[in-house]
């Protein structure tokens, strides 16, 4: 050998050789040709194996010079041959045993033309001496010769395919399709050998071979069991059915043996007929009638899932097409079966659970994030939605995925990620199997094998590391998307709807909506047509969503309103990219939205004002803390140019949070006491942020460098008690305290200007719900000044304070504004609301007199005292006045009573022995029940009201929000009356004595 730069050790290492000494020896045996091939060898999966294979082939071939000259002079031949030798030791062995086959790789058309299925069939049939043009070809070679000839021809054609795949970057779909066509031709040739073995009796049988699984879908691996089902019929009328059946079984058995047996030329692959009716225990072949009877009566859902990929590939193709036409309607109706989706998910879980623990992380096919996750997710989507959409009824995984993307069933980003992952995993699977032509799906863990695989897939730098990194990335993506698609709640909902209903045809939709309880099926149908008409992607996704959503709307109190609200929101969001994909993909969003729209006019109104709020429904809907809201409100408000825009941005955040709270309430996720606290914290944040931006604006308007007075807002009433309802005003007191040296008149004018502007801006009409800030509880009521100094409050309370004002101050909570001023105000009022020594008897009588007057004069004319939520018997006023009387009488000595919250005061009174536990429980139950119902009235009607609605639909909605079935509104009323009646008995004893 002439040593040269091309043969330096560093060059060989750089090109990817691992065993340098052996490589040098091998290249020396090839002479100058070896030097000329170095660049090509560096592009193979395993340069060492490629050199060794070429040396071995050169030793076996009849014309060594012709071989070496061809690979040296023709780059196409060199790349095809060397890449095969570097990637597959099994095909290198084949070439060593059949060296003449190297000339197959000189064909210049290999890189540009995929052989047709009929051409492959022709080659394989001729190999066994059968006539490809015969109706039922029969092999003519001697049996053993035919079996070996079939194996040799199969390997020859496989060699051509592998060369095209490795050297010309054949797409994974193209390679799988050609492998499937090659398998179909092999089955046909094996059947020809089987006919020869059976003899003349074979002519009595029409036998069709139905490919299943990957072969049926034309996505076969290099080495895989070929799953089949056999179906037969007599070739002539009047034939003995039993004899025909026996002959069909003999033909099928021989076909399996021809493909599966080991001979001197090895084996091809296993033919697996276990997917037939009754599995391995069932007859190997059945007639059409036998198959039909089994599938109609006994087949499990998974068997129809398998039939999704059925395709006639050999034998009597006409009979095979009759078989697939027979089972197709059964396949596309299997999702109608109860529990189908759950059964499919359980089957996938069982597969994963049975993978040995030591290989589960390297299982490319069955493991988490593997090929089966992609295939099962796509098949489940097809079977559920394919009942109504024939466009997605394709057997090939990637083709079906493309149709699912086009139809809007899978989002484009998700679909593209799934496509890329599946294509990579299939290509990796092909390269693993091609090495030794063995059926395996385990990714090796040794460095040399990973390096070879990485190089075969185009990774030139650190091929083993980059291969594993890419594989892990795609596996994570598949796991994520499998969970998202396979466990999509919408699938379960749609599967519960029959295929006819899922199609949403006009007649079926009208009948279904009438049956579901829509009052105006014709109007609902117009909404439906507006949402689903046309060929746009939006319309496609709506057609996916609406069968399930129609059902969910019907589970609400007003299905018609639900559908109409959904149409308005959908039209408002238009082509917003996230909207429909969120409803289709993300958890329970679509079901939650449907429930809100058909149950709550309040939520519907908020959503129509701000459709972007649909995003919230995918979260946990727990109310946010006040500090978080203040930070967000101020951050958005301070970016605005005017006070009006600043307050509008604050109100927009409030609107969104009202939706969050209301949605959690309607969906039963938030306790009634927590709803009151959440609404209170939201009001705190709204006032805090609005006060800050309003002060800034007034200071700028007046040219002030600093604030002339400290400002604070005192929450009163239900606001002060952390018990706000959706329809509540924010009752407040305004207080200010001039800074030292400030002019008293200027300070008062400033404070008044700030608070007046705050009230005006929050109550002004706009797209966001108004917040009415009510200061009527201030000293002297509406006749008194809007804002007072702390000293003015002190002087008033010292001279004029009445018991009713002390009672009102029980719920005062200084929450917004200057911290020091708030603390001093609290110190001022504590002696008033918790008087030392309690109330005098005259004051107790006065409290009762005022309560009696309120009960008599404020109950609306014609209102039912038993059903009025605030002033009715056992209602909110009864409970709260009872608690407040206890606070006034005992707050000075019982620390726990010094709270603005009703329920906390009840607990403290019980602990102090002022209330029997049973009485406290009755009052607590009544307060919680009535508060919950009061909120539910607003949520259902969309406006405030203290009377239980008389409209049956609104009453059903209220009952549903509170937690009763829609048809149990009478039970709801009876329970309400019982709770308030018992509370009123406690009020009679404790308050009125």
Automatic annotation (TrEMBL):
Cofactor(s) listed: Mg(2+)
Domain called Glutamate-ammonia ligase adenylyltransferase repeated: residue spans: 80-324, 591-826
GO cellular component, one term: cytosol
Annotated protein name in UniProt: Bifunctional glutamine synthetase adenylyltransferase/adenylyl-removing enzyme
Adenylyl transferase: region residues: 498-993
Highest taxon of the lineage: Bacteria
Role of this protein: Involved in the regulation of glutamine synthetase GlnA, a key enzyme in the process to assimilate ammonia. When cellular nitrogen levels are high, the C-terminal adenylyl transferase (AT) inactivates GlnA by covalent transfer of an adenylyl group from ATP to specific tyrosine residue of GlnA, thus reducing its activity. Conversely, when nitrogen levels are low, the N-terminal adenylyl removase (AR) activates GlnA by removing the adenylyl group by phosphorolysis, increasing its activity.
EC number: 2.7.7.89, 2.7.7.42
Gene3D superfamilies: Beta Polymerase, domain 2 (3.30.460.10), Nucleotidyltransferases domain 2 (1.20.120.330)
Catalyzed reactions: [glutamine synthetase]-O(4)-(5'-adenylyl)-L-tyrosine + phosphate = [glutamine synthetase]-L-tyrosine + ADP; [glutamine synthetase]-L-tyrosine + ATP = [glutamine synthetase]-O(4)-(5'-adenylyl)-L-tyrosine + diphosphate
